[in-house]
Write a structure and sequence with these properties.
The protein is mainly α. The protein contains 5 helices and no strands. The longest helix is centred in the C-terminal third of the chain and has 75 residues.
Length: 216
């Protein structure tokens, strides 16, 4: 499971970085996500997410089952301890992957909204220029054009405030990603330590078995 999750998480992090910074690749990534959300793309994505959620729930249930068997804290089975650490790591990676997928979806939405906002601003500028050139035209048409410009400007201000709020949400989400990354690194260290402890316990059990099988 870990061999599959690590490449997926790496690809998701690369996509997030491409969406955060304005580069020529961001347009290609945005176009790819637009095509993914059309046709049978949403059905495929929902199927994959549903499968991951089922596996995630099963892993969490396994962790709870192992924890419930640990009645005596001083006599924890080393095999169960290693299995619980592995399940905990798998669950953390799957949760991290789902969180990154949600971030990609939200960032793609914000980038698309920003593109529409820029197009609206360009249209407003063109209308302002045309209104300056046509001041000598019909007063009623000029008045209607001025009202339309006012409405567009109010919409642009609303979009700007909404984009600022969503940018703050994206920064907060990025901070959460960094915190989860540090947590996964700690889990890796704990997993290596548990594997080493399990190896030492097995060696001790082998020595005890040899001593019992060949008494002096």
């Amino acid at each position: 499971m870990m061999r599959l999750l690590f490449p997926v998480i790496f690809v998701e992090m690369v996509v997030i970085l491409l969406l955060l910074f304005k580069t020529p690749l961001r347009k290609l990534v945005t176009m790819g996500l637009d095509r993914l959300k059309r046709g049978h793309g949403p059905v495929m994505v929902k199927t994959v997410v549903g499968t991951v959620l089922v596996v995630f729930t099963s892993t969490v249930y396994g962790i709870i089952s192992i924890t419930g068997r640990e009645v005596d804290p001083g006599a924890i089975n080393p095999t169960d301890q290693v299995l619980m650490a592995r399940n905990l790591l798998d669950a953390s990676l799957m949760g991290f992957m789902l969180f990154l997928g949600l971030m990609i979806d939200r960032l793609h939405h914000y980038v698309r909204e920003l593109r529409l906002l820029r197009k609206a601003m360009e249209a407003t500028k063109k209308m302002s220029q045309s209104s300056d050139d046509g001041r000598n035209a019909n007063p009623e048409e000029f008045k209607a054009m001025g009202e339309e410009i006012t409405i567009l400007r109010s919409k642009i201000k609303n979009r700007e405030s909404e984009y600022a709020a969503r940018a703050d949400e994206a920064k907060a989400a990025e901070a959460k990603v960094e915190a989860m990354k540090k947590q996964s690194e700690g889990l890796f260290l704990e997993y290596d330590k548990l594997m080493e402890d399990n190896k030492n316990l097995r060696n001790q059990l082998q020595v005890i078995d040899k001593s019992l099988s060949h008494p002096e």
